[in-house]
């Protein structure tokens, strides 16, 4: 079977899988951003308890394996009465894990905003919330875009693990196709290329574009 | 923290002739280092006070305490008769909560050495931020006020530029407009020309001179520009080691300093040019 024939035969399944991967990526990213923001801010709180919760969260999710976390969410939590669809369990695990990494980026981004900005916002009597939301976070956001680009590519690659709980993503489809055709080189080669293309020609250009837009907003472009 | 007793301080200042700002036995310490030592200072409404003194003498600290950027260790500051960082509770002064602090500091505007404009906002947006977000003004009204102030500082034509596109002098003028947009009773200037190239210092001092001449603002200014201080101040305070070593009208203090340390400082400054 030529590679062209192979693609004709199985192309649509790769496509279906890619769409599921894209969905997993998108939802996990949204979740990771929310968690990163929340945990990052909590880690900067003056309240020791709030800070402690964030530290425990970040340590736990960074310090243990994503695969084990995924299995916990899908297989163990139901034993405590908390059941997730496999699709949900997939992106929740990935999002929670990468969110822990993102929290450190948020914290670092906020701390990289010069002290003078805090003081100017304070001198204007902005409330603590507005100071953070309107003055500090927009600047922190620009500073942390480059490392977020790396993190999102990491996240994309990590979504492949959801195949292990039978979410029918790209990796899952590839394994299925391989199981029935034994054309390992073609199958996993195709999957490899698709992941690469998504990372290199979708995620990265998008982040670059976002960086440019944000720099223009800062009048730095 | 120890139980603090502020009973020797009045709950508020009364009478016809209350100062706009009063430092009443104010001390500031960082660990063992006493930066301000029992400072007493009255600033009358509409008065322009310049603070000079050697590096580390506590000049910036005075302004930052008034902006409530630094906490007070001892003493009370009054602004327009009301305690700045204390409030009344059961007939006694206690440390104020954040809300009260925020209300009080809205009456005070500050300009910094490094301008600290918000880089993600245009000049106009920088000026509108306080009126809209703090004073709750309608956008149109805040815009009108901000445009007027940008006009006042000669920056009307650059109102849609981001700070990154402005020179230091231009940024500082916008920063002055931004502070003024809050209609503060007291304006603080901390070495606002120190970070500027010599050729643009004039455009900022002109703006400040204008404020002194045409507006009845109370101002405290820290500067190393003795000529400027001499020109526009009503009073000059020479700080040394966290205390006011000498204060007087600019004519007197500059031409006829009484204390030896003042003389030394002024001649050292003169030599440095
Ligand atoms: N956050 C801080 N922690 C410890 N010490 C501080 C702090 N801020 C200021 N100081 C010290 O307080 C003293 C007074 O500082 P301040 O900034 O008021 O001096 P200044 O008169 O403005 O000096 P300069 O002319 O250099 O600006 C200095 O000895 C300084 O080192
Ligand atoms: Mg200083």
Automatic annotation (TrEMBL), chain A:
Keyword list, A-Z: Amino-acid transport, Cell membrane, Membrane, Transmembrane, Transmembrane helix, Transport
Membrane-protein topology: Multi-pass membrane protein
Matches recorded under Pfam families: BPD_transp_1
Bilayer-spanning residue ranges: 25-42, 54-75, 192-210
Gene Ontology molecular-function annotations: transmembrane transporter activity
UniProt family annotation: Belongs to the binding-protein-dependent transport system permease family. HisMQ subfamily.
GO biological process: amino acid transport
Gene3D superfamilies per UniProt: MetI-like
Protein name, per record: Amino acid ABC transporter permease
GO cellular component, one term: ATP-binding cassette (ABC) transporter complex
Matching InterPro entries: AA_ABC_transptr_permease_3TM, ArtM/GltK/GlnP/TcyL/YhdX-like, Ectoine_EhuC, MetI-like, MetI-like_sf
Domain of life: Bacteria
The ABC transmembrane type-1 domain, residue ranges: 18-203
Coiled coil: none
Subcellular location: Cell inner membrane; Cell membrane
rRNA-binding found in the keyword field: no
Entry keyword annotation includes Methyltransferase: no
Lineage of the species this protein comes from: Bacteria, Pseudomonadati, Pseudomonadota, Alphaproteobacteria, Rhodobacterales
């Amino acid at each position: 079977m030529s590679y062209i024939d192979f693609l004709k035969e199985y192309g649509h399944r790769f496509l279906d899988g890619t769409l599921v991967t894209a969905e997993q990526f998108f939802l996990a990213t949204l979740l990771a951003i929310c968690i990163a923001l929340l945990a990052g801010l909590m880690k900067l709180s003056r309240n020791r308890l709030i800070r402690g919760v964030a530290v425990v969260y970040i340590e736990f999710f960074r310090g243990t394996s994503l695969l084990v976390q995924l299995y916990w969410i899908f297989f163990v939590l139901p034993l405590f009465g908390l059941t997730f669809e496999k699709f949900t369990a997939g992106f929740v695990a990935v999002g929670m894990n990468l969110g822990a990494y993102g929290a450190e980026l948020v914290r670092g981004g906020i701390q990289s905003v010069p002290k003078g900005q805090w003081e100017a916002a304070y001198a204007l009597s902005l409330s603590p919330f507005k100071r953070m939301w309107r003055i500090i976070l927009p600047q922190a956001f620009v500073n942390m875009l480059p490392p977020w680009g790396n993190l999102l590519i990491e996240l994309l690659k990590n979504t492949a693990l959801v195949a292990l709980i039978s979410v029918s993503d790209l990796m899952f489809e590839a394994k299925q196709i391989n199981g029935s055709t034994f054309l390992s080189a073609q199958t996993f080669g195709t999957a490899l290329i698709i992941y690469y293309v998504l990372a290199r020609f979708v995620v990265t250009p998008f982040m670059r574009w976002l960086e440019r837009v944000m720099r223009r907003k800062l009048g730095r472009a | 923290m120890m139980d603090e007793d502020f009973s020797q301080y009045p709950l508020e200042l009364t009478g016809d002739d209350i100062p706009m700002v009063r430092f009443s036995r104010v001390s500031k310490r960082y660990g063992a280092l006493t930066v301000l030592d029992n400072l007493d200072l009255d600033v009358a409404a509409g008065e322009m006070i310049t603070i000079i003194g050697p590096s580390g003498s506590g000049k910036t600290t005075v302004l930052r305490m008034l902006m409530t950027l630094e906490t007070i260790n001892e003493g009370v500051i009054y602004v327009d008769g009301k305690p700045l960082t204390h409030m009344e509770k059961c007939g006694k002064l206690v440390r104020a909560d954040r809300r009260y602090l925020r209300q009080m500091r809205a009456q005070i505007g500050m300009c910094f050495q490094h301008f600290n404009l918000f880089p993600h906002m245009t000049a106009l947006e920088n000026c509108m931020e306080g009126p809209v977000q703090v004073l709750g003004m309608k956008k149109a009204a805040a815009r009108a006020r901000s445009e007027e102030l940008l006009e006042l500082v000669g920056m009307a034509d650059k109102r849609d530029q981001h700070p990154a596109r402005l020179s230091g002098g231009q940024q500082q003028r916008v920063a002055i407009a931004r502070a003024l947009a809050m209609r503060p009773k007291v304006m603080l200037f901390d070495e606002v020309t120190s970070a500027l190239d010599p050729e643009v210092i004039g455009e900022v001092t002109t703006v400040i001179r204008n404020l002194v001449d045409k507006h009845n603002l109370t101002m405290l200014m820290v500067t190393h520009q003795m000529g400027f201080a001499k020109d526009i101040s009503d009073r000059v305070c020479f700080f040394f080691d966290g205390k006011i070593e000498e204060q007087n009208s600019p004519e007197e203090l500059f031409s006829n300093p009484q204390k030896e340390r003042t003389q030394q400082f002024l001649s050292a400054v003169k030599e440095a040019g």
